[in-house]
Amino acid sequence: MIKKILFLCTLSFFMISCGSSKNVSSTYQKTASTMTPREVDVASTKSEVTEEVVVKEVTVADKIVWTAVTYKGVPYRFGGMSKRGMDCSGLIFTSFQQRNVPIARSSHEMYRQGESIPLREVQRGDLLFFKTSRRRGKVNHVGLVTSVDNGDVRFIHSTTSQGVIVTSLHEHYWKRTFIEAKRVL
């Protein structure tokens, strides 16, 4: 009886393990949108890309966004530019700087750079400018567009209440305080 149970267990083990193996001959496609930033960097630097990996060209904007996203969750700190704390323009300045792209340090000065673009033409890597205060001056907040999906513009920025977060421009507060979009890349 024990030999029969042992035989059945062994047989079922082999059947299960063979049935769960992947079919090696099937083609697997992985696109840049489903890959991690590291996988895209590695795939895009290979001298030959196989048919099994479909990769879109990695842009400077992609790299800047990936850098900015590494700061997600960092607390707000006025004038901050590190993992210990960041303000909105510090996040943008640091993300651009780490990818060797020069940009002004303050949101007000960033606003003077680049080309104004209609919101419907916004792309990943563009900057969004806001006036969140009644104080004198036009711009006092900046965010970096991380994605645009069916008109939903998402951007990363640092807020005084939540630190570095990704937000939708459809949220009432941000829609109301939005001033202008600019392309600096």
UniProtKB/TrEMBL annotation:
One of its GO terms (molecular function) is cysteine-type peptidase activity. One of its GO terms (biological process) is proteolysis. Residues 58-185 form the NlpC/P60 domain. It comes from the Bacteria. Residues 1-19 form the signal peptide. Keywords: Hydrolase, Protease, Signal, Thiol protease. The keyword Hydrolase applies. The keyword Oxidoreductase does not apply. Gene3D superfamilies: endopeptidase domain like (from Nostoc punctiforme). PANTHER family: MUREIN DD-ENDOPEPTIDASE MEPH-RELATED. Belongs to the peptidase C40 family. This is Cell wall-associated NlpC family hydrolase. It comes from Tenacibaculum caenipelagi.
